[in-house]
Amino acid sequence: MINFQDVSKNYNGYQALIDITFKIVPQEFVSLVGRSGAGKSTIVKLLIGEDKPTKGRVTFGHYDVGKLKSNQLPQLRRHIGTVFQDFKLLPTKNVYENVAFALEVAGKPEREINDFVREVLDLVDLGSKAKNFIHELSGGEKQRVAIARAMVNRPDVVVADEPTGNLDPFNTSAIINLLTKINELGTTVILATHNKDIVNQAGRRVILIENGRIVRDEERGKYSL
Amino acid sequence: MISVATLTVMLLALIVFSSLIIFNVVAASALNSIQEKIDISVYFKTSSPEDEILRIKRSLEELDEVKSVEYVSRDRALEIFKERHIEDATITQAVEELADNPLSASLNIKADDPDQYSLIASYLDNSALEEYVEKVSYAQNQVVIDRLASIISVSRQAGVLLTVALAVVAILVVFNTILLAIYSNKEGIEIMRLVGASNMFIRGPYIVEGVIYGTIAAVLSTAIMLPVIYFISPYLKVFIPGMDLMGYFLNNIFTLFSYQLLFGIGIGIISSLIAVRRYLKV
User: Fold this and answer.
1) I want to staple A56 with a disulfide (CB 3.0 to 4.6 A). Which of A6, A132, A140, A164 is the partner?
2) Confidence category of residue B282, pLDDT binned at 50, 70, 90
């Protein structure tokens, strides 16, 4: 489903990725691990079409991501749910509205939006906080809102880039459990992180990246430095 | 949030733009009223036979540049002269005492365009006509005609330049305002992109903002012009008889307003498109 073929990425002469090749099949749970600056976020950016590869080919389903025009990117992004370390939630909207937003931009009808949002808020256990504003939530709750938003348009894949970077161990564990649950419901999950505990907790495929290269790619891998 | 500075600059551009339209109307009407009075008069020697003069009249009428030719016979010229001086007993008496009519027959020639008087004058200045023609009264008018035509064309050009300059300033200022709006909502835009909002969905609000500035400025500009023209109109009437600026303004207020609306909205859309294009990487 996702295919990186000999992908390199240069930022003004700095080589962020060098000849990366990997495949991700549907319903997989993949952890991208490595130190900060190893190139994890670059892979995420190339996947959602925010950056274009300097060399090589990135494909997602039938999309050739590197060649998409800016007016085709929204279509791609409706197939990918994204979760980031800094949550990226709108402070002027409440929990319900933040999640519904992802459906509104896709032009879904009101009724459908209502059903989907209720459902996904229950999934992340925030049904009771639908009317709360973002600043009234804890870090873990914020990240669960972000996951709910990533899930609500039923994407083929959820990409989480350091989702636990701002969370305590208890909330970290809850988020990883949630991502595992999402994966069990049939969605592909890509988790980029530098936290080895959570990788080991997940106990799934691990791709280790160092200095822009893949140094290890193992099923049921462990992450040790 | 409406930016007062943006609105002011936009308003200025619109006021100059509509002043230019109104100036064109005033100038055209001033030029017309003066052109009505301008003609080339050819005075014939008293010895010239009438059918010769009528032949010259016909040949003049065949010229493309000539709008009309009016023949004033010697008798008619005398009548006009008498009428004009009817209250001046000395002149009336003096004319009565003359045995012969001393006045020349003349042709009053009007051209379509003031530029063409020199062409007509040069046509009249040929040796075949010399035998009959006493004098051609063009030279005196020529300077006035030329000067008026050039004043009008220069001020029109200046108006266009000023409008363009202010439009550019307005575009830059609106551009800046939209830019600030985009910057202050950077996060929101990033999130919209991440959840797959279409480009139009993201750009739309900023283009609408430009349109709103244009619309408000057009309404304000019309509201400001109305009392100003009401005040100026009577003074203008003194300089250009037959010019009713207020009447013109009221009759064409919807046309003028829609021009301003188009111009303002145009500026708004152009500048927001530039801002969106340059700073909204979608």
Assistant:
1) A6
2) very low
